[in-house]
Amino acid sequence: MKHIGIAAMALFVPQFTFAQSTCLPDTSNDQGFAAIGDTAISEVTNDGDNADGVGDGALLFNGQSAAAGQGGAYLFSCLMAAGESLSISSYVYNPRSSFVRLRVALHNVSDDVELATTAATTLNTRNPVHNFTLSYVTQSTDEGDELELRYIRTDDGNTARDFAIDNASINGQSLQIKKAPPPPNPACSAPLVFDTDIPLEAATFEQIAEIDKVFETLSDIYIGTADTVDTIELLTLVDQALLDYDALDIVVTGERISGNTITFGESGQILKAFAQYLKLIDSSDNDIAEKASNLVWLMSQKLCDLEIPRNRNAYAYREFARHTIHLKDYLSDEIKDRFGYTLSVHSEGFLNFWGDWEAGFGYNTDWIFNISDTIVLFGLWKTLTTDDERVQWMKAAKRYLERFLTYSDGTSDGIKPDGTGFHHWVAYDGYMYAWITLTDILSALDDTSFQIDADSYIRLRDSMYAQRMMSNDAGVIPLSMTGRNPGIKTRSTEQETLRRLAITGGKILGLTTADPILAGYYNRAWGVEPEFNYDETARFENGFFQLNHGNAGVLRKRSRRGDWLAFFKGFSDNMWGAELYVRENRYGRYQSYGAVEIIYPGDNTVGNNGYDVETWNWNYNPGTTTIVLPWDKLHGERHRIDELQQNRFVGSLALRNKGARRGVLQQTWGRYGVFAMDFQEKANVGFGGTYGPNTHNDSFTFKKSNFAFKNYIVSLGSGIANDDAVNPTVTTLYQRLTSSESGVTTVNDTDYTDDGTTIFSGDEDHWVINDYRTGFYIASGSGDLNVWKGTQQTPNENQVWPVDVSLNPVGEYTIGHLDHGTLPDNRGYEYVIVPNANPRKMRKLSHEKPYVVYERSAARHVVNEVEDAVWGYALFEAAADMTHPGSVLKASDTSCLVMYKEVNEEKIRLSVVDPDIGFTSRGLEAPGPRKVQLTLHGNWSLAKSHPRATLVSADNIESVFEFDIVDGLPVEIKLKQEEDD
Prior knowledge:
The chain has 981 residues and is of the alpha+beta class. The chain is 20% helix and 29% strand. The chain has 15 helices and 50 strands. The strands form 10 sheets. It has a 9-stranded antiparallel β-sheet with strand order 25-27-29-30-39-36-35-32-33, covered by helices on one side. Helix 2 packs across helix 3, helix 9 packs across helix 11 (495-508) and helix 11 runs antiparallel to helix 12.
């Protein structure tokens, strides 16, 4: 009998004794389906009717590694005879949100010949079920050969693309919808062998004690102590854990274990109760210890047999792994080896831990959050491990953390030079809870020789600090930074993490106090912490923070009436501005369309920051310019949309550096700033299932800028255009949750309290103070000002259209916007934002503007702040022969942002950046430096040399300077004017 395997595929073929007969339609002895490739097969009951009843059972085929051609195979228990007519029918469905493409084939295993196949068919969320049918008449060449029915994926192999077989039949006889017994896999129980590249050296007594301390500290954090765990509650949890364990019906027979299937997360909760009990109540309870060991063995075996799939980013696996590692005193080395297999699978062979590593290679931040603590401890726990090997492992663990804490390249996960943290290919604070686990580990490494170095810590500290600069002291973040979770408008790390990192940081920096940078912030936000040995309280951080890796900028101001921050956000063709899933952020397209959100102290409730995810109108995000669409048009057209546009010029620039003096965010914290965005909407975005026709409009364009000066922001727009003749285009000033008592809007000294819309002509200037004390001065020619108050009922962010919103919550809001009408053609605006405004301030502003707009064109926006003598330029394209009165900037050879401040008649301080870092969408490569050449009127020289600024030429007419822009960071220089020759 011939047995020919599938090239590059692992296929289990059960061995049978065959009789020469025409018995293929007799499926009673068939053993079911085996995996083709690295595919986990599990039983599910989420199947539809499909001619055999709803929920009667199906098999899910879940690819564990990215490889095309994986799938499943059904091997019949008897051999083919010539002349048999075979008719196959099989219902297959897609249980996931990602599409999957596959075909079904009859295969002669003995001759490795495909006998018949269906066409490849795509199953997606719109058409998730397909009935595959095919027929074949066996030939003389098939006589006595084995037959398989194969389900073969023909898509790109992405692990998110799964399929399920509900039923299958041959000549009307149902096949066995079950998983065939897997073959033994010795690799699942073998000790892991590592190619260690750190020399093995004799361990010192101090190092041995340090390692014990690391393990104990992490045990106290994750398992708990007598002070942190309530004994009575624990005993209740243990009772439930014992019941859950008994329900598994675990049976050990020799070298095999069997039992019912549960998830990693469910098993992790049982193991946590057992680990806490053994640590805190009775360390000698052999029954609990044995049950814990059996459960670890069972879960490891089920992963080995692919009865449960790899937990892709380890969120559920974390619970299993973290509590297993702290059962080290109760598990045999054999069980530890089996667990080691599961950790190797989930860490992809301990990626980045041993061996060479390319600087800038980004780690998955999910792994840092979920399994980095387990990886750090893994090499310490086996009985057979020597102290020398434990020290070697901890040295590698130190290096593993330091590698992660280098700046990562491209859009890969990790920390960027401006302090932003990346996940899903963009700056994504929602996932930076990874810093929590990292801080846990660093706390455990306190006072040991295995602690990370100071440079690595400072990069982490800057990221933690940048996270706080993007939020208020209560942790509220802007809507534009929430990603696909608009209901979570709070930063991802909080008080305890910052407290412990401040203490650890002080030790790493060699101080006798906690790190003053973090400790000062903590003391202001939560009160002085005695353990810091540092009682100074940081003042609210005034200034502008440049965040070009996030297509963003932040202005923060201390005020007697309450501190505030303004967050500016855009997006580009390489970093998305919103992330839409089927049931997450479904209407969030406009999150980053030039958003400007003012955040005051406190939470999001009425009177503080006025936001409710369940009643928000998704068309009117503050600061954005949008086409106001009905819900069926604003609704995401595809299953998954990463909102990208066609242009790449978007970002910010800081002037008059403060960070170098403060010792944090040393290149990106200034006093003044500018944010700009060049936008053209991109049509036909997204992937996966289709939910409606394309409603993205590639004729939709605008250019906008925001100049952040003392206590106000000058906002400019130009080139607003699109071909939508039905839906109006607007620029939103504000949207705020309010109440009938608080909803007072003041326009031109008149209070408006009634529900409804009041329209003010765009041919005149107006000023507005909304009921959150934010003032807006709108210059004529900006479009009609619409001021509205009323109740609104909107789709929830997780509701798929069409949906009945009549049962949704109702919220009362005020909204102010500028109406650019339908079919806008080169419309624009000019308005000023004044947080913490009052009528006196607004009257003064309307009578005497403290700034001059010298240009608001398609090519550039130019503003001069008169009192502080600050100039700001958003150059959307190269500029030549600029002659704005009093300006020294004459030309630029490329698009860029420029600001300068006049120090006196002969000196200026100038800052420049090209905010386009040079990324490609989902690109991992590190972009090179970008050149900007500026020409200034007059004869200027560098007052002080700068490594990234060069004087190219100078005479009495003009001076040319060239700048090397790296990582979207600014180059700030001082220039002095030379006397004419």
